[in-house]
Structures are given as C-alpha cells and as structure tokens.
Amino acid sequence: MHNSSRRSFLKHAAAVSVSASLGASLPAYSPVHSGGGDDLRIGLIGCGGRGTGAASQALSTKGSVKLVAMADMFADRLDSAHNALRENEGFKDRIDVKPDQRFTGFDAANQLLASDIDVVLIATPPHFRPGHFEAAVNAGKHIFFEKPVAVDAPGVRRVIAAAEIAKQKKLSVVCGLQRHHEYGYLESMARIHKGDLGKLMFARCAWDMGSLWNFARKEAWSDMEWQLRNWLYFTWLSGDHIVEQHVHNLDVINWAMQGHPLKARGMGGRQVRTDAKFGHIFDHHSVQFEYTGGAQLFSECRQIDGCVNDVSEHVYGADGEWHANGDGFTITGKNAWKFAGEQNDPYQTEHDDLFASIRAGKPINEGRMVAESTMTAIMGRMATYSGKEITWEKALASEEAWGPKKYEFGDLPVDPVPMPGKS
Length: 423
What we know:
Structural class: alpha/beta
Largest sheet: 9 strands, mixed
Strand order of the largest sheet: 14-13-12-11-7-10-9-8-15
Oligomer: single chain
Number of helices: 14
Radius of gyration: 21 Å
Number of strands: 15
CATH class of the largest domain: Alpha Beta
CATH architecture of the largest domain: 2-Layer Sandwich
C-alpha cells in the first residue's frame, strides 16, 4: 500500500481520490446568501460523533436554518445521526432530510454536493477532507470542515489552493480549530502579539491522555470497512494522533508565534497499544520544532491508559510566561494577567461566526490557517516516523501520499509500523 510504486502512481496518474474528480460533475458556481435572511440549507458529510455535533451546533445558530441532506459511507451511521438530531425538540422544525437526500457509499459526498444546499459541514475521516473541501468550493458552498484537513503534504497543498479559490468566490470557510473562537484564547493572543511576554523564547504543549474508542471487527467486514470504521488507527485515514488530535495544541503555538515552524525533529513509537486492532499508528510522539528567530517548541502527545494526563499550551518570553490549562488563561511576570472575561462554548461560537458571516455577506476564510497547522503536525509525524530532521520546505513539497490506489470494499493490507531510522 504505502510504497514507492503507489507513490509513483499517485504522482504520475494525478492521485485518484474518493472525491478528487467531483468538480467535473458538480453544478456551476453561483453565489448563495450573499447577505439575505432566508433559510440557509445545510448538508452534512460524515455522520459520526463529530459530524452529529457539528450539525447540532449549526442548527443552534440564529436565523432560519434547515438540515436538508446527509451523507456517510455507512447507512447505519447516517441513520443514527439523523435519529439523534431529531430527538432534540429544538430542532424538530429545522430538520427535513427526505429519503432521497440521504446518500451513502463512496460517492455520497458527490451526490450531496450536487443537491440544493448553501452550507456544507465536512466531518469525514481526515484523508477525505482535501477532496471534499475542494469539491465544496467548486460547487460554491460555504463550508465548515473539521481539523485536521489532510493527512499528507499533497492533501495540504490541495486545501491551500482551494482556500484561495474560496476567497476569490467570497465563500465563508471555518475550520474545527475552535480555540480561534474561544474568548480566553483570543484575548491571550492579543496580549502576546502586542508584546506582553517580550521576545518569545520557547514554548511547550501537550495532549497526553488515555485510549480512545475502538470497534471490534465483525466477520462480515472487509479490510476496507474495518479500517474505515476504526479510522483513528490508520495513518492513511487519520494522519496518526499527532495530526488528528495534537494539531489543536500545535495550532495554538503557531498562532502565538504568528507563523509555522521552520524544522522539526523528534521521536515516538508504539509501546503499549500494540494489538493489531489498533492498526499501525504510534501511541506516543515527542517533537522539537524551531521557529523563525530561534524560538523552540517542545511538544508531546500520548494515548496510553494509566498515565498522567495533560492538555495544555505554554509560551515563555523574556518578560513573562503565558499558560493555558485547567486553571484557565494566565500571564505571569512583568505584565501579569488572568482571564476573567465571559466564558463561551467555542464549538458553538465557531458556527455562530460562520453563519453570521454568510448572512452579513462578509466572508471569513480559515483555510490557509488550518492547512498550515495541519502541515505542522504532519511535519512532526514525518520526523518521528523517520527519525530525521525535517524542514518545512521539504515537508510541504513532499510527494508522499497516503491512501489506496482505488476505493472499494475488499482486501486492504495494513502498512507496517514505521521504524525510525528505516522508514
């Protein structure tokens, strides 16, 4: 699967993707809701837990909204999400997904994007997001898409290019890096950027936690279905947890540093979560990044039970320190401060901001930002998988593409566990 012949095929045959070719069959672009107050018609692609949550938040925004189309690889996931949303009494007049607007299978996203919707919510496994985002932009839809937005550099480049087209089309694009809509982070970054910490020297961040969900394999499932249903544990689908989850923390440090890192080196492995049911990803990563001016970031992430947990970000400057953790947001030193403002639900606020921008005709576009944060995490994974020092230029230019040559249910061998120094 992940070898030189597959990479060569992808490079020279234009990379078959589940939705890379959607644009040719989609309706021509036409602006939607450039300032009007009518119904905003929503389509959901990816009906897992995060997709269901995103739909719930979209349906909780101000103004008239309606969920009219849903798509997922599997009918049981779509039905489960539809039923869960309908159980909310507040949504009973905001959901109207007719049977012919419920799409399943590998072509589900294509069918949904060809339907009459204004806003699309993309919460598929990360591997599919570049193609789905690109197709949604081609279709002229406003977009919310979850992070990370790719699992490899070719995917990141597609997102960057499509985000620029979205800007030209005046489409609103909001991503799932919800900290950018959390009041405590917003005020923190304003203070850091105006110099309250002085010259930034180094930072550290972590997402250390226990294990996550896993679905036991059923006899009827092919390799492809088993991997799709357990997408967390396969690099081609999730990017590994340094990309899928730790991207949140890395994004915060990029935000503070006002740019992406220049290079990375690190280590990681698969020490505890070694059973075949966990695919082939690592269970821990530790990466050191270097930014412009020499500032260093020490990052770590872990998914192992029975260990100390830590989800936090910290920035250290010549005049003080900033900390974001379970104690809130604080600055110590010359310009001491503690956030005491309004607490908000950033998952809801990001959707409030998206829909408000559409209604006001004032598009916002977070595409490039989330692409660069995703690439930061991918660069970290490249460093831990290879054991090499990886530069931003080398990482972003990489032709290493993760994924099968074609999308069909059947045999799909699992890639070997990466071995630093050899991979």
